[in-house]
Amino acid sequence: LGDADSTGAFALTEAELGRIHSGTLTIDSLGQDLLVGNVAFADGAGSTRINLLGTGRVDIVGEVSGSGAGRTLQVGGTRDAADPNDPATLANIIRIAPQSSGGGRIIFAGGSLDLRGAKIGVGLDDGFLTPLGLTAGGSPASTAVVQNDWIGNFRSSLYGIPGGYADPVVISAGTITVTYADYALFQNTAGRGPGSGVNADVLNIISSGDETNGFELFGTIDQVGGVGAAFLVQPQFVSLPNSRINGCLILTGGGCGGGGIIVEPPFPAINPPGPPVPTGPDGGGEPGPTGAGGDNFSQQDLVSSGDDEAFSFDSLVGTNNEGLLGVMGVDDATDQPCAPDDKRENCRIKERANEQ
User: What does the pLDDT read at residue 337?
Assistant: First the structure.
């Protein structure tokens, strides 16, 4: 469709599509592949619904656009209701391949977008869709690989690339419904900054009910971005531990990471205190050793009520709260304020720190 070029394929140009006037426009590739380039659907060509159907693979490499409230664009699947447990009702693969500016995009202002594919990937071919195996001739990654190496890996290119996209909006529609059997991944277009790429007023995601299915999308829902968008998605039969919006688990907003939303710094390795600080005849000396012998606790307070905290903790979300409990595991005897000339070991350590 549009200006996409595939040798020997049946083609419909934008001008030819513009000559069609109907309430519903259906183009069905059946089991064959469907390649879509730049095409702007005129208001009269499928004024209420445009169906780009097929159970093979669908590749969108140009911008697909249209407008009109109450108008729906379906990509992939059949005329029957989508069933994520029935491959015959879904496209095998939906690949939407934008470039930094231009390339594969869907801009359907005021309308609805209905994506139906067993495996869905939206993002750059280089470094993302190609290693995922979603480009033509590739071997699609398994759900286990997607869980571990992509959704669960905040350093993966799913969470962004240095510098991001020149044009960050890849998909925009009023209501977006994504039906998938295995996974649906939408790359962060904002680099490592706050998530962007998809703008929707309403986002529905529907999957197979299998605990291995996975979902990740970056963008805004009802103009809300960041962790707030994770609470606005409307899921059905999705694996909650493997489903994220802007790097945050849907419905709970927990476990945020990557995408610039809440980046949890690695908790520092803390070893037992080292030996006492040696002193010379003049009262001087070098700090005690660290590493295998232990970190010198006399150098800094790990937990402080002051403004210059040595380490910060996220005590509500993520894994840092476990580390906080670990370093605060002190008994009542050592947790009391130190009096002058107090002989308790923790007070002697503080005195040595002050001497330095």
Answer: 60
- CA separation for the pair 105, 96 (Å, rounded): 7
For residues 117 and 171, what is the distance between their CA atoms, to the nearest angstrom? Answer: 16
End-to-end alpha carbon distance in the chain: 75
CA pair distance 138, 213, nearest whole angstrom: 20
The SS3 of residue 17 is helix
State both tokens at 292.
């295998």
Choose among 15, 80, 18: nearest CA to 53. 80
Split at pLDDT 50, 70, 90, the class of 309 is very low
Averaged pLDDT of the chain: 81
Residue 20: enclosing H or E segment and its boundaries? Answer: none
Separation of alpha carbons 146 and 120, rounded Å: 12
At 146, list the tokens. 């997607």
Question: Burial, 333: exposed, middle or buried (Cβ in 10 Å; 0-12, 13-18, 19+)?
Answer: exposed
Question: Tokens 């030996």 correspond to what residue?
Answer: 275
